[in-house]
Amino acid sequence: MSAAGPSARELANAIRALSMDAVEKAQSGHPGAPMGMADIAEVLWRGYMRHNPANPDWPDRDRFVLSNGHGSMLLYSLLHLTGYDVPMEQLKQFRQVGSLTAGHPEYGDLPGIETTTGPLGQGLANAAGMALAEKHLAHRFNKPGFELVNHYTYCFAGDGCLMEGISHEVGSLAGTLGLGKLIVFYDDNGISIDGEVEGWFTEDTVERFRAYGWHVIPHVDGHDPAEVDMAIDNARAHTGQPTLICCRTTIGYGSPNKAGTEATHGAALGADEVAASREKLGWKYEPFEIPQSIYDAWDARSAGAGAEQQWNALLESYCREYPEAGSEFRRALARELPDGWADKADAFIHECQENMEKLATRKASQQCLEHYGPQLPELLGGSADLAGSNNTLWSGSKVITSKDASGNYVHYGVREFAMTAMMNGMSLHGGLRPYGGTFLVFQDYARNAVRMSALMHQPDILVYTHDSIGLGEDGPTHQPVEQLATLRMTPNMSVWRPCDTVETAVAWRFAVERVDGPTALVLSRQGLPCQTREGSTLDHVARGGYVLADFGDGEPEAVIIATGSEVEIAMNAARELEEQRRTVRVVSLPSVDMFLRQDQDYRDRVLPPHIRRRVAVEAAATDYWWKFVGLEGRIVGMNSFGASGKGPDLYEHFHITAQAVRSAVEALLET
To answer: For residue 378, which phi and psi values (nearest 5 degrees)?
Structure first.
């Protein structure tokens, strides 16, 4: 080190050393990417990143996303060195049970982690969602002299991220929307797990992203701080398009025998190679030892606190000048609901019950948007090219474009995966409540992003229509069977399949009020009658499961459990059984997960444990329902893929009818 302090290379070598040491101690991990991208990180984080380690949630901070999340030690090292509450002991516990330094960055585990990454390409989409949120909120809230929302989203991405199909979806849409404050650094090291990528990744990435409408800066030496610095200046000056900075790097930079090879990608270097790398890099310190001069040069706490203090003063002035907008800005960031929300929601639900309107629940969902939307300007909707079918547009919708981001609706095109992952990014950014629609069967395209939403506890609202064979003639390619079960089995996912306008209104209310995870609204194409509810029954809908009706006098001999469009079938079957002087209960279970969160006493009152004659009916995979009916129960549902035909004919063809339900109950009553 010189008398003037550590050089840029020495500061980058601190990242390399920590990454080597942590992976070596764990005997697990990916040292190559952190060693290869350390010089880029040093320039970005010390020269440009606007953040406050003492307050990682400062709203106007720059966002940093490590899309190539296997290189997690790069991020952990940066957070530790710049002054976040990430102690050295956590780096030493990398990838161990109970530690906060997981194999891939986990949102919520450590301060400064903006999103969970690891499934390649999704971080890129999260970053695009964050950049869209910034652009929208800036258009909505910024006033002359008050740049209240004014920050960048930076993303590191590798070859694997750009090979994943989601990179095409999001790259195309980000270019179309002109997300000028999204700056992506492509780690062009030419290596993936299987070796040199030239055998399977040969497209011209520069021209590919130019075709998407991106500003592309090619041929940057990722190990030359001056070139990286110049590229970032260029990107920040070009605000009309997202920027891809193509940085040529050497994976495992500094490793004398393994640099530039797949040997550094996903395994510890080995003690001898770590020692040799230390010597080549000129790093003379023991494992996990960082000299104070290095810490001092990296420390971002003072600058971050000053930047946030300036912004806080700007916010206070803004609120004095524009009190209504300032209050709304703070409310949206805090995820608080507007005054009067609960009373208006209650009134709307009661109105739905009084009107007794027969509607497809997808259309009932649109009615909910018409009622709830004006109260919630933070709702930002969209659909994967199915707006007219999903009914996600409402009268207050205004489409976001590259020129005008003040709207509240995104035409995502046929990009289910990008839509969902971008919604995750918007939720993570804060200030917005995104919802997005597609057919239920096509959530398979977005499946991993749906899972990530639940994993990160993000309150996305997933609108899934055309929920069964009831959609009709499009046939088995479009008719979901197993999708409901997979959604319900996803931890922290709330799934609602309403049977009418009332249950749909309750489901939307739940989704809006939920802040700790996503909600899937599973909706019908076909019209469904509104069910009659008396007394406290209406209040019990919000509990996820309730007694819709008891037929006959005395204790029920059997229980029919149904969801969605099959509630009508269950009710018709129960009426037929009542004519035979049978006592039957119909239980509607619009949200199984919500019902299971109720106290045991309530659940037992709805489904008395001693009543073992139970039949479940749902036009979906049957296996999920055995835990409710028991091995002695019966299930009426789908045990195959669907078929092409009119919806009512398909219900007859697959024997999902009132007669089939009645017969199942009769068979149980004979035992």
So the answer is: -80, -10
At residue 1, the pLDDT reads 60
Is residue 505 over pLDDT 80?
Answer: yes
Cα end-to-end distance, the chain, whole Å: 86
Q: What is the DSSP string of 242-280?
A: -EEEEEE--TTTT-TTTTTSGGGTSS---HHHHHHHHHH
Q: According to the model, what pLDDT value does residue 4 have?
A: 77
Average pLDDT over residues 429-445: 98
CA-CA distance, 101 to 106, in Å (whole number)?
8
pLDDT of residue 535: 84
Could you tell me which residues are beta bridge partners of residue 284?
A: none
Determine the distance from the C-alpha atom of residue 488 to the mean position of all C-alpha atoms in its chain, rounded to a whole number. 16
Report d(CA 322, CA 319) in Å as an integer: 5
Residue 433: which of 322, 318, 338 has the closest Cα?
A: 338
Angle of helix 566-579 relative to helix 658-669, nearest 10 degrees, comes to 50
Indicate which residue of 416, 503, 566, 576 is catalytic.
Answer: 416
Is 10 among the catalytic positions?
A: no
Long-range contacts of 291-298 (CB under 8 A, 24+ apart): 291/1, 293/1, 293/5, 293/6, 294/6, 294/10, 294/11, 294/14, 294/81, 295/81, 296/5, 297/5, 297/6, 297/11, 297/46, 298/11, 298/14, 298/45, 298/46, 298/81, 298/82, 298/83
**The model's pTM:** 0.98
Identify the three-state secondary structure at position 438. strand
**Percent share of the chain, pLDDT over 70:** 100
